[in-house]
Design a protein that fits this description.
By secondary structure, this protein is α+β, with helices and mostly antiparallel strands. The chain is built from four helices and eleven strands, in the order ββαββββββββααβα.
């Protein structure tokens, strides 16, 4: 699918994967958008911590909540968003997100410029094996995408919001 070609992506179309605690479905990538943005869908099970506090240095992210409620920490501020609401996460601002509810949640992640969707493609196999992930490989992946991840926030976020930490 090229940026100049009109297409329709059905509700079950697009490649999907699992990122340890949330799903990912690739909907629009760099090639399809001409590099302007990417679009991924993140289904989240109940009480899932999607990502600990982290910071992107090259991308802005916008989360559009489709179903359920999603909790966010943006800098020092903690908020929740529901269906139809958009949360802006500018590059450079530390943020985390989770499903605080007892039902599943789903959001669309718009990432600009495109390219960070490749991080998810590379991350899925690192988290899909038996046993703990290779910490060195995770660190190298994050460095390639200019992403800093604060894993020390997993326990505090999980405790504060009644979440299951990432697997």
């Amino acid at each position: 699918m090229e940026a100049s070609v009109a297409t329709v992506l059905g509700p079950r179309d697009g490649k999907a994967g699992f990122l340890g605690s949330i799903g990912v479905r690739f909907m629009v990538d760099r090639e399809q958008s001409g590099g302007g943005f990417s679009l991924v869908e993140h289904p989240m099970s109940a009480r899932a911590l999607a990502a600990p506090l982290h910071r992107h240095n090259r991308e802005d992210e916008y989360s559009y909540v489709i179903e359920g409620r999603v909790g966010f920490q943006l800098g020092d501020e903690v908020r929740e968003a529901g269906p139809g609401e958009v949360v802006a996460k500018p590059r450079g601002v530390p943020h985390a997100f989770w499903n605080p509810g007892d039902e599943s949640a789903k959001l669309l992640e718009i990432i600009s410029p495109a390219g960070f969707e490749e991080y998810f493609r590379e991350l899925a196999p690192l988290l899909g094996g038996d046993g703990p992930p290779d910490v060195a490989a995770l660190g190298a992946l994050q460095a390639r995408y200019d992403l800093t991840m604060d894993f020390s926030t997993i326990d505090s976020l999980s405790a504060a919001h009644g979440l299951r930490p990432p697997e």
